[in-house]
Structure formats: structure tokens, C-alpha cells
Design brief:
This protein is mainly α. The chain folds into 2 domains: 83 residues, Glutathione S-transferase Yfyf (Class Pi), Chain A, domain 2 (Up-down Bundle), CATH 1.20.1050.130; 88 residues, HUPs (Rossmann fold, 3-Layer(aba) Sandwich). The chain has 9 helices and 5 strands. Helix 1 runs parallel beside helix 3. Belongs to the class-I aminoacyl-tRNA synthetase family.
Length: 217
């Protein structure tokens, strides 16, 4: 009976990994939660012995970028380490799974970790920082602004400072002046300055054309 139960557990786990695409953007929280609950009382997925279920899980997570970058519980980390130390896994290096975060495609610049922009073309990258003149800049604004400038400089591109002035009841000229002063203090050097309202006529024309084409109502 125990052998049959173990076989059923193994088959159930294999079905889970077979039915889920590791490259899918769908969150894997449910799978991780089920695994973690199972590992509370078990060393491996189907009991106290390494099985095909564990091998399938390792193979699945090896192809799943979400898993590589997600925060792992102690149960999950211990399970991975146990699997990787098993002689069967050591003798058959079929995956590069690790308990460490995946930083492939990243570069270290001035003490920080930055992702490369996939398929970016030198000289063609355009980034923008769109503050709203309805309050002061905060640390999140500073991070976004400096990150955009970093990529502008890295790819010899263009940085646009565009005030998002679409909420006139809250926006004030005072805040716009303060924001411009703060941007200078941060060392931000935009290549182009504009306001969303500069393009209202263009946006209206596009909207009307969409309606005439039957693509909007």
C-alpha cells in the first residue's frame, strides 16, 4: 500500500509540472505553496527518498526564471540543497539550479546591479521621466529619474523630461519650479523638456480617427 501511495504522489507531482509551462508569466505561487506545505513533513516531494517527482521539479524550476528570482523559504532551500547533494543528481548534471538569485544579464555599475536592456540598440534608446506638478519629489521619483538617466548614458540615447499636466485641479506652477530645482540638484540632464498638454491636439486627432475607423467609441 505504501508503495502504491508513493507512486500516486509521484504521478501527481509529475502531472503538476507537466501541465505548467515554465516559461509562462503566470505566477508560480500556488506551486511553491504546495511544495512548501509538503516539505514540512517530508525530505523530498514524495517522501523521504529522492524520486522522479524531485527530478521533474528541478528540471521545471531550472527553466523557470520566476523561480530563480523569487524569495525561497527555508524548507524550499533545504530541499534544493538535499537534491543537489544526492549522488544521482551529482552524476547527471542536467540542470544549473541554485538557491542563489539569478543575476544573469546584469552588470555591476558603481556598486549597483542593473539589468541589460534586451535588444537595445546603441543610440536609439529613449527614456522619459514624467513627474506631476502636484507635490514634491520623493525617493521613488529620484530612483526612477536616475535609473532612466543611467540607461540614457549607457546606450547613448535620449532622456525626456515630460510634465504630466493632465490634472489641472491639483497642479501648481510652484511645484513645477521646485521639481526643476530638485532635478538639477540630482544631477539630472534631460535632452528634451515637454508637457503632456503640448500633445493634446495630436491625441484628440488620433482619438477621433480611431472612432471614425470604428476602432473606438
Amino acid at each position: 500500500k505504501n508503495l502504491k501511495d508513493d507512486r500516486n504522489k509521484i504521478n501527481n507531482w509529475i502531472d503538476i509540472f507537466y501541465k505548467n509551462d515554465p516559461s509562462s508569466p503566470t505566477p508560480i505561487n500556488e506551486i511553491l505553496s504546495e511544495i512548501e506545505s509538503n516539505l514540512i513533513n517530508n525530505s523530498f516531494l514524495a517522501g523521504d527518498q529522492l524520486s522522479t517527482a524531485d527530478v521533474c521539479a528541478l528540471s521545471y524550476f531550472d527553466k523557470c526564471r520566476q523561480f530563480k528570482n523569487c524569495k525561497k523559504s527555508q524548507h524550499l532551500t533545504n530541499w534544493i540543497e538535499r537534491c543537489l547533494q544526492h549522488q544521482l543528481i551529482k552524476n547527471n548534471k542536467f540542470c544549473n539550479i541554485t538557491t542563489q538569485p539569478d543575476h544573469s544579464g546584469c552588470t555591476l555599475e558603481k556598486g549597483g546591479l542593473f539589468l541589460e536592456l534586451q535588444d537595445a540598440i546603441m543610440g536609439s534608446v529613449v527614456v522619459r521621466f514624467p513627474p506631476e506638478a502636484s507635490g514634491y519629489l520623493h525617493i521613488g521619483h529620484a530612483k526612477a529619474a536616475l535609473l532612466n538617466q543611467f540607461y540614457r548614458d549607457k546606450y547613448n540615447g535620449k532622456l525626456i523630461l515630460r510634465f504630466d499636466d493632465t490634472n489641472p485641479t491639483k497642479e501648481k506652477e510652484y511645484f513645477e519650479t521646485i521639481i526643476l530645482e530638485d532635478i538639477q540638484l540630482l544631477g539630472l540632464t534631460p535632452d528634451q523638456y515637454s508637457k503632456t498638454s503640448d500633445y493634446f491636439d495630436t491625441l484628440l486627432n488620433y482619438a477621433e480617427q480611431l472612432i471614425l475607423n470604428g476602432d473606438a467609441y
